[in-house]
Amino acid sequence: MRTLNSKPFLFATNLFLASSFLMIGSSAQAASATMDKIKSSGAVTMGVRESSIPMSYTTGDSRFDGYHVEICRMILGDIKDKLGMSTLRINYQPVTSQNRVPLVQNGTVDIECGTTTNNTARAKDVGFANTLYVEEVRIAVKANSGITSISQLAGKKVATTTGTTSVQLLRKHEKANGVNFDEVFGKDHADSFLLLESGRADAFVMDGSILAGNIANSKNPKDYKIVGEVLATEPIAIMVPKNDPEFKAAVNAAIAKIVANGKMPGLWNKWFLAPIPPKNIVVGLELSPATKYAWANLNDKPAEDYNKK
Amino acid sequence: MALDLGVFCKSTLDGEVVEHCFSSIFWLGQNADPSYLDWLMKAWGWTLAVAGLGLAIALIVGAIMGTLRTLPDTGRTSRLLVRLSTAWVELFRNIPVLVQVFLWYHVIPAFFLPLKALPSYWLVSIALGFFTSARIAEQVRAGIQSLPSGQRAAATALGLTTSQTYRYIILPMALRIVIPPLTSESMNAIKNSSVAFAVSVPELTLFAMQAQEETSHGVEIYLAVTALYALSAFSVNRVMALIEKRSRIPGFITASNDASLAH
């Protein structure tokens, strides 16, 4: 019995080994693993955020939209044409700040269209497409507070969100200028804004688009304003798998085409200056010179290059 | 994957390796900029502070409420006190602890303005303390009710008042009986203190979330934080075991004679 049974088992093992070698062989030959997967499955998985208005957010009923999401749909349309496919199904996969990098790394997400800062630490694990949005870290305060600059925040309560680069930025600023903030941490952006709204914080330091979005969503948007100097500049980019230069090149080619066709100003107006679904709020963030520069000189430089003085 | 524990020796400001990595936590050296290890230790301090304060509130309030629930029916005052303590227990054990923390931080100070001046770790400790007090009260009640009714009858026969009965007869026995479940509750207080991150107390969970974002070394950060939580909870366990051993009266409570076997 024993010897009889072991034969089919051995055979099955051999078959399994052979087929796994075959799979390794075929993927090594392929031009781009991601493009191959898209072509063979007829589907692509886009990583999106739940509430990063207006960059990437849900409009309800598991539909997703936003500045980066619309750009990604254009990019994927271009890739679909390039691969000669008639249809391409886009699966939306919501991601968080914590899981977005691992999900792109392990191939669950093919292209992440959220609000990810391109920095050198992340670039070790994932690839970044050319930047189309440059974020500026600003200060939101109550309109009647009289605060107009970060220098007036010494000793005041400053809110920011746990798990963001702004926390470190505040720390660096304290050290560099010898001032002391009383930092309070919201567990998410809505929570941090609540701290400002309820008076537990005098200012909320965060990415300009997030501040603008939260102010636009608040009960009385006129009670708040964004003031002061730009505290930091960060390129926000679409994330792609790291070891797939062909896919990244295809994405960048599509981005170049969108920019060359002059579509970017229209996209900016649509998402940042006009009413957006689902509540028809207006974010009201003017196009910054830094973003305009990024469109004119497409590049994938990390944040570290932006903040070199 | 390979662990890179060197991340704890890096400065929290520029990511460079600091001069005094381990010596600084023993106050032997002083870093110009704090390292992640220094920050981790500070965060641990906050966790212990919140948990310790919460536990102190919980033990005091819990012992009082648990005792009040067992008061004999001797008049209107005692009936009122029984009802009050029952309401206390049901209120605080039926609301999730995170919701209670938000209530104490965001909602209650909106009505009682002086509370706004309290630092957030006090509010969290109150929330955590009251939540745990409801659970401790039930354990104290169970301990008191597990005593033979003859104890109370004997005290009454001796002419002791109700408060004397509790002070000299019932509580010394009951509180010894409930030390094992109190050990669990004390360890829970350490673990539940992690909700404090939600209201801006810079404790271990907040440190983990922030530091893993800054360093991209989530595995190492979370391992260290897990180890510190486990170490803190286990220390509480040992201290309680010591108290259990020291407070034991031979022949009083037979079950505790073999308490050492339970660990």
Q: What does this protein structure show overall?
A:
The complex is a heterodimer of chains A (309) and B (263). By secondary structure, chain A is an alpha/beta fold. Chain A has two domains: 34-134 and 236-303, Periplasmic binding protein-like II (D-Maltodextrin-Binding Protein, domain 2, 3-Layer(aba) Sandwich), CATH 3.40.190; 135-234, D-Maltodextrin-Binding Protein, domain 2 (3-Layer(aba) Sandwich). Chain A has helices at 2-29, 33-41, 67-82, 100-105, 120-123, 165-177, 189-197, 208-217, 245-260, 264-273, 289-296, 303-306; strands spanning 43-48, 51-52, 56-60, 63-65, 89-94, 111-117, 127-128, 133-142, 157-161, 182-186, 203-207, 224-240. In chain A, strands 1, 5, 6, 7, 8, 9, 10, 11 and 12 form a nine-stranded mixed sheet that branches. In chain A, helix 3 (67-82) crosses helix 9 (245-260). Chain A starts with a helix and ends with a helix. The model of chain A is unreliable at 1-30 (pLDDT under 50). Chain B is an all-alpha fold. The interface between A and B is medium-sized, with 26 and 21 residues.
